[in-house]
UniProtKB/TrEMBL annotation:
Family to which this protein belongs: Belongs to the UPF0065 (bug) family.
Keywords: Isomerase, Signal
Single GO MF descriptor: isomerase activity
Pfam families documented for this protein: TctC
Stated name of the protein: 3-carboxy-cis,cis-muconate cycloisomerase
Signal peptide stretch: 1-22
Amino acid sequence: MKHWIAALAAVAGLALHGTSQAQNYPDHAITWIVPFAPGGPTDAMARNIALRVAQELKQSIVIENVAGAGGTIGSGRAARAAPDGYTFLVGHIGYMAAGPSLYKHLSYDPVKDFKAVFRFPDTPLVLLVGEKSPYKTVSDLIADAKARPGAINFGNAGVGSTSHLVAALFASQAGIQITPIAYKGAGPALNDLMGGQVNAMFDQTNTALPQTRGGKVRALGLTSNTTMAQFPGVPTVAEKAIPGFQVSTWYGLYAPKGTPDAVVSTMYDAYRRALQDQAFTSQMTGQGIQLLTDAEYAPAAFQAFTAQEVQRWAGVIKQAGITLE
């Protein structure tokens, strides 16, 4: 009997300790792992949001850049981190959705090894052609591609990059054959697009915006589900050419599996409060970033979305025969 009572007391003590930890969370700096080098779009997005969330938490958030293997090295490290609420992963469509199909020996499962915390605002893409291109609409490009299978090339930021995958999805849904040309980053691809060596490419709206305003490239269609004020007169691909076509570069915050629900809720609530700051959200929308509804960025919705995206890109990658190993 004494042993039984002692065991109960120990369990109760652990429960109280856990409750106390949740109530005091966070009591020291939090780390967000970004699996890319500093200075890129994922890093910039993460730092912008982390700064604002940290203000709500009244605790610092440190960005740790763990680059390599398309984001999979840093993701693997985050998956193995202690689930104590002090290490998180900044996820991305590439290594959290396409990764399982691009890499045969991934050290983590995006769905089973993580708990979704919240989804960042989306960054749609835009189909671009050079200023001297004969294509004035998405339909023009599709019609020519059907007449000349494989003759039209699409530049991309590298094999397995978002721009590569979106072009593959576009070709599949349009029923055309294109020739992908991989570059070491979106910048070199965009330069060749402007120079006429590349026929077309998909680029993120936030990075494409300065080039379209400068007149060096022409935007034919957006991959978002609605038009955007930052791209006046540019329709969506869905409304003019491929019904239902919609895709964005998405990001979000994940915690290692086993992280307490109370911690996830605290982090999510801080983000939700940050989104009530109009100056913060206006800064993002002004750059061509698209805000989401609470029903889209909340933990449960983001967890379900991640699983759906893994399946979606598995089909696209298999059909296009894309592999990184």
